[in-house]
Amino acid sequence: MATLILFIIIFGAVVIAHEFGHFLLAKANGIHVVEFSVGMGPNLISVKRGDTKYSLKLLPIGGACMFEGEDGLASKDGEEPGEGSFLNAPVWGRISTVAAGPIFNFILAFLIAFVMVNMTGIIAIRDPIATQVLQGGGAEAAGLQDGDRIISINGERMRLYQEISLYMQASYRGGDLEIVYERDGERYTTVLTPQYDQEMGTYLLGVANADFVEPKGFKTFAYAWYEMRYSVKATYKSLGMLFTGRVSRQDVAGPVGIAVNVVGKTYDEAKDYGWQSVLLSMLNITLMLSVNLGILNLLPIPALDGGRLVFLLVEVVRGRPVPPEKEGMVHFVGLMFFMALMVFVFFNDLVNIFQK
What we know:
Number of strands: 13
Largest sheet: 5 strands, antiparallel
């Protein structure tokens, strides 16, 4: 029961932030919001305030902010879309309305990261410093010393120590690495050859870090940005691994898999350490999911916000919109694809759960 409640709260927060972004910018641009809903499927509760219907639906796995005139949606009276139609709003007003959903997911992620960073003594924040250069490793051979700060790897900036591990897992393709590091205020460049660790099954730089920092004052904003930035990098790098076949079916999870394998298992592991550990763990999951939803919705795929933005940017270039019926047809095809994908992910979650 605790897992289900936590899952609903986490998904609810992420979805509400996304849809509220659409809702807020729609209102600001004079677009009539026909329905604002949280969840999918049959209505549990619905109430009408002004021209908008607010609904809570049975399945806590999504939401919607439906505009008058969007994909042929008529006005509340069944008439043709009028003054409040999405189609009649200025193009940049429509662009801001569509983009606001993902942007609000990133805003939510930053606020969560800020809260986490300020949980002093609970969250482990580590700068990319080699507090210990391991004997016989690639870092020692490259001339790194204890206390050196790693600035970048192959041109990719490192702000947190976990970004080094992320780079090695998701970006390293073999060969030498160009390392820029800082020692006594001076920057140096060296070439490092990672060593393969048989026990861990991965390549390692040969450094360790046990130096935790406790940001104060304005630095908490910087480290909140770094934490959110790390989640963004982890998300798009994971997508790259998925598209290139470096991630297997077992590594993909939908709502059921997230509830059982992520929220449930994380809760079981954290509850023995107290409510603060549970809170931190759930905040971290919410941060990652919010970033995931923001990035996925910006992909230029029909039916997603990114797909809609493509049509709007085409309109900006052409000076006139793509005919609504043609755009609606493209988004409908995309919607059917995602419905089929949801069925696949659902059964994939069940297979993964029962195989473990």
